[in-house]
Amino acid sequence: MRIPSTIMVIAALLLMPGAGSASDYPARRIDIIVPFTAGGNTDTIARLLAKHMESSLKQSVIVVNRPGAGTNIGSALVAHSKPDGYTMLLNAPASFVVNQFIYKSLPYDPDTAFEPACVAARFPNVLVVNPSLGVKSIQELINLAKARPGKIEYAFAGVGASSQLSVAMFAEKAGIDVVGVPYKGTSQYLPDLVAGRVAFTIDNLGPILPFIKAGKLLALGVSSKQSVSLLPGVPPIDMVLKGYELVSWNVLALPARTSPEIVRIIGKQCDRIVHLPTVMATMRSFGAEPVGGTPEQAAEFLKSERPRWEAAIKAAKIPKQ
Amino acid sequence: MTQARPHSRRDFGTGIGLAVLALVIAAAGGLIAPASWLDPAQSPSIYPCAALLGVAVCGLIIAFGKSAQSDAGESLPVNRRSIGMGLIMAAYAILLPFLGLIVSTLALHLALPTVFRYRRWGAAVAFAVIIIGLSWLVFIKVMGIPLKL
Amino acid sequence: MLHEFLAAGAMLIQPATVVALLVGIVLGTIIGVLPGLGPSIAVSLAVPFTLNMGIGPSIALLMALYCTSIYGGAITAILVNVPGTPASAATCFDGHPMARRGEANVAIAIATFASAIGGWLSLVILALIAPFLARFALRFGPLEMCCVGIFALCCIAVIERRTLTRAVAAGLIGITIAAVGQDPVSGGMRLTFGYFPLSAGIPLVPLLIGLFAFSEVMIRVGEIAAGMQRPAMTGVGFRLPNFAFWKNAAPLVAKSSIIGTAIGILPGSGPTAASFISYAEAKRSAKDPASFGKGNPHGVIASEAANNAVTGGALVPTLSIGIPGDPITAIMLAALVLQGVIPGPKLYVEHGDIVMLILMSLFVANAGIMVMGALGAPLWTRILKIPEPLLMVGVTIVATLGTFATDNSAFDLIIMVFAGFLGWGLRALRFPLAPLIIGYVLGPMVEVNLKQALIVYGGDPYVFIERPIATVLLLMTLAVLFYPWLNGLAKRCFGKAEVREAK
What we know:
The complex is a heterotrimer. Chain A is α/β, with parallel strands linked by helices. Chain A has eleven helices and eleven strands. The longest helix of chain A has 22 residues. Chain A is globular and about 65 Å long. By secondary structure, chain B is mainly α. In chain B, α4 packs antiparallel against α6. The longest helix of chain B is centred in the first third of the chain and has 25 residues. Chain B is flat and about 65 Å long. Chain C starts with a helix and ends with a helix. By secondary structure, chain C is an all-alpha fold. In chain C, β1 and β2 form a beta hairpin. A two-stranded antiparallel ribbon of chain C has the order 1-2. Chains in contact: A-C, B-C. Chains B and C meet through α1, α2, α3, α4 and α6 of B and α8, β2, α9, α16 and α17 of C.
């Protein structure tokens, strides 16, 4: 009942002359929807963006957390909101290139529902093991898993999360059989990983970094093609498994049919903010790498990422929900 | 035990109703899928289905069990006015985002003469003004929730 | 250590920090009082402001909001039988009956005092043995957490001994409601009936507001219509019971605080579970369990000391190993990250002054609870002077707005309406609501951990031999379940001395 009426509203607004005109934009409050609970990487980046947009656009910019259903709740909210530039989405790959391969029916079409404005940041994933496992390199981990098929467990932060897909791709390329233990989020599995009840994972560096620094977890490899400055001496997984690359990211997007000028204004803001020295320092401190760029580059980027994630989901053999 | 008779008849209805409702929800929600229960760790349905079956069993115990303890808990007066108030509140909650704060809140005050038989108009108007003002201040002005006035 | 203490002290007495503390204490209490708004919304509303503040004021503001918003819920629970925050649901049971017999001032004073002491005791535990406790908490894996959940669920049986079947049914209904939406383990949808907004599940705030506030208004209307006049409620002000009362209650305060702290430390459980479990334990161990639910001040103490003690407990893993104990501390961690402090296992070593400042802010915030109670109670209790019809309309408005404000979601209001009729129906059919909330809060914890344990350990029962904590928890569960029977057995064996007490 609600969706068709929303579409009617959108259609009516599109027919109205001058709807969402860019000349006086922004004239009121802007909401950035984050489809995760407060406190994660995406939320933190959204708050950095909101803070700096607020001072340069002279309008309040609010971060709204709408978690649930594998980020679909928040994404659908933005997809169905008026394309006037006052509601936007900051999300990980899930709502752009992942969920269409996991969910049978979505209330929005990830390929057409959004107008990407900017790639805010990339998050290289890191392969960590509990030191008690006794492996010191990627190859040793693979050898151990081959010697004990179906016995080594890894933690992942929910169905379709980048940790699940990263490990699935790793396991496929290495030809190993490992068991996934699902958790509700990174902070939920960290105690079990640190205590050695699960052996390893491949996930965003941010929340894991303090444990690597404290020696509680051992970093074996990173998921990007280049090594990461925060982890000197940790090789890319690509060195052992040729062609392995899966880097998570955040894209700031507006609903489809938002006027191109508004998309450009937001894109420019985002590009400028992620390159501010203080923002770059804060982002790097939790393992995010600022990216930036234009809306066209963001659209290109999404296109190039799509097949990569589709392959990872195939490797994870997630049944369609 | 003579006193317990009307009680236990009510318990019978409650229990049977509860059991039937639990089973209907389990069936309609697609939870009865024994094929997936073979792998309990990966089955989405086994846990809520077990809970609903538990509800059904409790319902049967309530319906057919000894009602010796049924005097526990106070009985609440169930009457048309309490249900009317429920419907008024439901309308208020559902219409609030569409009608805005002032219109819907004033409409809610119509419950005062109808449901509560409260006819001190001066106090009611003063109260309406104060509560709308305070709600506007706290929720719309300070917290910035997207609600029409 | 001394150096860090002095550095933190210097930060605390800066004017900006003092102002932040005061603002946090006042706003936190108000947010707690408003039904629907609780600690998590208080903290997440504050995060954007902290971006423009220094680290000292940021921490002071967040800590003050955290403590006082949990406390504020008790005031609404006592005065109008509507929990101001989910954590104060158990405070309704005895707090409101006290207000009904004209002791609202005493009930608020007791809740205030118990909250502050609970907060302080948990702070002492946090300050002295946090690293040790955090290491112990790390030994709680899926199997142990599953056993903790089952143990806590069985407390339902203790709270509601008289209406056991109905209580169990209500608990199972709560578990079912919590299961709506996406299964966190397999990702499959359940009980959504193909309706997309349900896939995010039923959130706690609309459920709770519907069950308690909405149904409360309906019931009062019913009572008015049936001509059941309530005695005019009196008890304006703030009246602390005498020393003899507190001397008698001291062991209960200590026990409830320890329960609250312990539950706060374990990940995945929060103040709501803590207050219910503490209440159950207080009722179980009381000399006169039948008086609970009828205005026994000890019920208020058990609930309030425990829910405020969660603050210190939840910060144990947050500060000493960098893993948040609940969603609220997760938001606070994010605020620290934005301030350039990366929490983790080395926080104590690298940022000792920050840890000290957190402890000091908590200390002052709990003192602030006392001040807010003493100064605010005369004001709050005036709510009792409002004519009942107006008060009921006011509760409807504030509860609806509070529910809407949590997520700005019109769908949440629909959930609230359904929960309201459900709550009213259950209460009319004499089902207790407490087990439903306990089931809702703990059900997912049991399910997820059980499934994780099944994946990690397989179906191997020998795992209990390797994991003594789980075994102990399971034995405790059995002891709780068979307590009356065991008690009876003990009495028969050991004879007269205890029979007198049982009477």
